[in-house]
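Sample intake sheet
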Amino acid sequence: MAYTLELAQKLTVMKNIWHLSRIDSEPTPLGTIEQARMKLKEEVKCTDPAGSIWFGIKARNVVELAATYDIADGTGASLGTMTKDFRASLGRSTYRVETPSGQWTITETSKGKAIARRVVGVVTELPWLFRVQFQILDASGNQVGHVNRANMKIKDTYEIRVEDEALDMRVAAAIGVAVDAFMNR
């Protein structure tokens, strides 16, 4: 069953906060995701509308070039892992996701645009000039979804489209957070 999520960042000073909704039919709020800034080990929590932890993301180590993040449900049970592929990320940001139900690769759609975005990022802090687009590939290399940033918006807003029922919605939301918050690490 396919689904579409929206991850919309709320601008704040001390935390990254996103509102997560399912938008493929009637828009439905799924939760609020928070990440404290300036921490050595990344940690992100998503609370559902009732206030319970729906999922969390936690770095295994202090910030590193090929970081691995554990994704867990509200009870702490593993949903999977997400690892930044350092070598592939030299050209375009790439993550490897592994869960009990499968493996996926999340990579920027265009290597040329990825490099141009990095060059512009060195000169100016206007990342919204370039649309960030990622494709979600299954273990066979077939595209089964995307993570696309809305163009020309100051506030980061991502559409996460998944056409693979094996990819848990919480893991897909974690991928959206990685694309926004962890990409330039």
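Comment: The chain has one domain: 3-182. The chain has a mean pLDDT of 88.
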